[in-house]
Amino acid sequence: MSMRRIINNLEEIISSFFVSITVSLVILNVILRYVFNMGIYWSEEAATISFVWSVFIGAGACYKKKMHIGIDLLTQLASVKVQGIIHLLVNLALVGINGYITYLSIVFVRASVGKPTAVLGISSAYMSAAVLAGFAIMTFHSIRFFIAGVKVLITGEVNKEVEEANIISK
């Protein structure tokens, strides 16, 4: 796999890694518990932390590919130029919203630094950091989509980056 392909799919790779850890820990613990009548005491908490990471990194991956639910019925009725303006305004709002939630995530992680988890006794900031990572990824892509929208309105050119950002309807 080329380095460019790895970087382009980094969110998906990381999320898949955490899903694999979650599934492996749960399956291993079920087998140990029901077949050998013993279990790994920390597996549930580790699986939960891994699952949280997979969810928030996966949310960033979905955001990158515009897979979140959106209502664009009214937008599609407008002209291409008006669609571009609407998408630009929506992306600007999303930069603000995602940026603010990223800021709140930083506050949340700082507040959770001194709180240990129940079983492993590690800082709960390791789990809380998943929220920060996920929203930082979404903020990054919001900025990327906004810049692509500005380029379309200024130049009128639709390039590959703009198509990936789904700035105009097809």
Question: Which terms summarize this structure?
Answer:
170 residues; mainly alpha; 7 helices; 0% strand; elongated
Describe the structure concisely:
One of its GO terms (cellular component) is plasma membrane. The protein is mainly α.
Residue-averaged pLDDT: 90
Which class best fits the helix and strand makeup?
mainly alpha
Query: How far apart lie the N and C ends?
Result: 31 Å
Number of domains: 1
Largest sheet: none
User: What is the overall shape?
Assistant: elongated
Run of helices and strands? HHHHHHH
Specify the number of helices.
Answer: 7
Strand content: under 5%
Low-pLDDT windows of residues: none
Alpha-carbon Rg, integer: 20 Å
How many distinct beta strands? 0
Helix content: over 70%
Transmembrane segments: 12-34, 46-63, 84-106, 118-138
Keywords: Cell inner membrane, Cell membrane, Membrane, Transmembrane, Transmembrane helix, Transport
Subcellular location: Cell inner membrane
Domain Tripartite ATP-independent periplasmic transporters DctQ component: 23-150
